Amino acid sequence: MSQSESAEYQSLLTTENIKPRRSCKDIYKPAGTSYPAFLPLIFFVLLSCYLDSTAMNLALPKIQEEFKIDGSISQWMITAYNLAIAATSIPLAKLADSMGQVSAMYLYLSCMTLGYVGIYFVKNFYVMCAIHFVIGSCFAGATAARIALIRQLSPPEKAQSYMMYTASICTGFSVILPFIATFIIKVSWRLIFLICGVSALLSIVTLIPYRNPPRKPSAKKCSVDFGGMLTIFIAAGALDLSFTFLSEPIYWLAGTLFAVSIIAFILFYYIELHAQDPILPLNIMKTPISQYAILSAIGAVISSGITFVLPQYVAAHAQNSSYAGIFLSVSGAVSTLLTFAVPKITKKYLNKTVLVWSYILSIVSFGVFIFAPFNFWFFMVMFLVVVLMFATPNFAIPPIMCCLVPVKYAASISAVPNTCRKLGTTISLSITSMIIKSCSQLFVKNGQSKINAFDHSMMIVISVYTALIIISLLFLMKTGQAANESHKKGFDPKKIKQLELDDEELA
């Protein structure tokens, strides 16, 4: 802190005859804020996000029943939210940098609050999806601004620890909220929106003590990649819609949208190559970064898909809906165990070795899972097994990617795993719901009962996931070892594959 800033803080604390007292500016000062001071803001922002995403997945059977729609349509409640996050995270983060993180958070959280209140009263499903898209965009911006704000206010030596504390809160929510959401949905699934709105409003209240941290003047003009944001939205949205109309079936419209998606993806590629601050930094998306980006996207397709089908499966078998929430909570607890185990394992063994064995065990467990749908409890137990086996890649790949680039490029690559995961999630729900609907209709026409038709459709879905894991393993084999793994068993300097760029390539 400069002398002038130090004098400003001290002037707030003392006068000659007045007892010193601590002010908000002293508590929330740059590079000197303690983690407990951040807790209220972190808690309520994360609560609205995790409760929304968790509860909406559990509420889909209720939504389908109320609006008389099937899974291929109802999944758009979640897809719209995730599509918004994938398309707007980085552009809105840049906008927050320009406005100031605190000012941007006031804007984003206010829009979230109004959105949740509005969506609670809306009776049209498609209008609800549109509002949920706006809410997802605002959450993406608020999250980026919150992370940047905490990073600036945290003591430099404690910043990484603070981020780990926040990850622990996220893990705790993933364990607790599915169980709580189950009982809220039993009262009314719309109540979720009201609770999320109150949480967003409380986030605004907790933001009151904060001020925009002082910014250093920069000669570089802030650039927002609106072209990339628009084209990735059109590309991913058209692709998702093509799968939806394929299941209706309206083949001509599905084909047209698929063609639009391909064109938009090509435009996105060329826009990102020349963008100053791209959504995806394609100029550093080379081996082995490109392989890990693909693994991250495929991992999201599989993880989101098995989470999506769980409440659908419970509803199709006419079981107590609370089972889905309970097993999702247990799966969250299982994933929590891995957050402690994986770092210890990767300290001793090569990242590639750990991932290869994880994919092999996943292939075996998914191979058994294929035959599980015909027995309810066998399916539920195998759900936990496949979650355990497949959790390692999703947890380990993001930090591996960041460590494969020089330190000065880490910020450029840090957004890639999240963007890939969100795109994978949106595609996953559309493909999964399309397969279930189309195959179920085909099996029913061939004389099967609805429940048997659904179970056979589940076998096909799980078979697709198994094939994707095999493809992931093939991509993984093209990766190598990292230079910072020289202390691990099996390290071979000749097998190092690490991204190396000069300043001209990144410019």
Automatic annotation (TrEMBL):
Chief subcellular location: membrane
Residue stretches making up the Major facilitator superfamily (MFS) profile domain: 38-481
Membrane topology: Multi-pass membrane protein
InterPro entries: MFS (IPR011701), MFS_dom (IPR020846), MFS_trans_sf (IPR036259)
Pfam families registered for this protein in UniProt: MFS_1
A GO CC term assigned to this protein in UniProt: membrane
Gene Ontology MF annotations: transmembrane transporter activity
Regions crossing the membrane: 35-53, 73-93, 105-122, 128-150, 162-185, 191-210, 222-244, 250-271, 292-310, 322-342, 354-372, 378-411, 423-444, 456-476
Keywords per UniProt: Membrane, Transmembrane, Transmembrane helix, Transport
Membrane keyword on record: yes
Subcellular location: Membrane
Keyword set includes Zinc: no
Domain of life per record: Eukaryota
Name listed for the protein in its UniProt record: Major facilitator superfamily protein
